[in-house]
Amino acid sequence: MANTIIASSQQTRFHIANSTTTTSSSSSKELDVPGVCISIANTGKGPEREILSDTHLKLSAVGEKLIPGIPTGLRIVLLQQTYLIPEEESEKESSSVWGTSESEVSVLEFVISSDRERTEALKRQKLLQQALDNIHDPTAAVMTMRNLKLKDDLRELEEARKTANLRSGSRGLAARKELKVIEKRVAKKQEGLEIVDSQTLAEETSEVITMLADIDALLEEMSSSTAESRAKLILRGLGFKSKPTSSPSMSQSISSLSGGWRMRAHLAAQDLPPNTTVLFVSHDRTFTDTVAEEILVLRDLTLERFPGNLSSYEATRSERQRYLVKMQDAQSRQRAHMQDTVAGNIRAAKATGDDKKLRQAASRQKKLDERMGYEVGMRGGRFKAE
């Protein structure tokens, strides 16, 4: 049976630091979610397996936003070494790279087509231009524009539903109120979708022209015409060859790549802007050390953050362990010396029958036990050794 991922956080009820609105329009660029718990339930087989417990997740970007509290407007890039073609994408977006069998898509085509914003803008530009050029149907342009707007509204509606389901209390109530507003707006648009009169035809045709001009400006701003040359530059930087006879080549299919090279292709496909955080999983140590600026270590049901790559982390951890061993040895020697001193004082007090010195020695022994009974952990915290 299939495993089920169960994720929860403190964010939904008590700590909403990311967003100041109740909809998906959050402008937050940081991910700060306390009390994250993640477990895997194997349906019908044994107890849940806990992966994270009460962890404070503070990153700039994670996954598919399964954890409540992740801003919906945040761009997330998740890289791994195994990829599946999303069936829902291939059904919905037949013109995108996912609509073609992965075996038929070259690395270069994949990278160019994976710029979703550019691909969507080109698609809308083509649809609107064809509709304007349609001399047989004067309403074609208006209907195309309305359907594009409705598509955007339906996407907003879906995000609003997710937000309303995730939140509770006063924020949940506000989210559900806004959801009703969006639902009414979408329903009204759907009811009047096919209604076009002479007045609205003239007004909305003008709006179509404005929308097309905005799309042209957007494509110009993102330097759409240089997409192929930029993709080649990024791929070369990640080790791909331009010549078809070389390996790995930009012209070979995505499906023919190994896991590590496929991940590099997906990294190139992001065409990342500055200050974007990428969370990736890799078994390629050289690649990880070259790319990573911060790593996450899963240990004892919590996440440890380290500013640096894997080699730096291991070197720092090894140095820290050596330091703690030295500290422990020094503490042991100090404890032995102090215990010998106290024991000598007790023997001397007993030999002379000095009860006052005996009480002083016993008091020092108690303080020694309390003071020296604490150990220092890997993170620098002190704990009582039992």
Automatic annotation (TrEMBL):
Residues 300-370 form the ABC-transporter extension domain. PANTHER family: ATP-BINDING TRANSPORT PROTEIN-RELATED (PTHR19211), ATPASE, PUTATIVE (AFU_ORTHOLOGUE AFUA_1G16440)-RELATED (PTHR19211:SF135). Keywords: ATP-binding, Coiled coil, Nucleotide-binding, Repeat. Residues 140-167 form a coiled coil. It comes from Gymnopus androsaceus JB14. This is ABC-transporter extension domain-containing protein. Pfam families: ABC_tran_Xtn. It comes from the Eukaryota. Residues 350-373 are annotated as: Disordered. InterPro entries: ABC_tran_Xtn (IPR032781), ABCF (IPR050611), P-loop_NTPase (IPR027417). GO terms for molecular function: ATP binding.
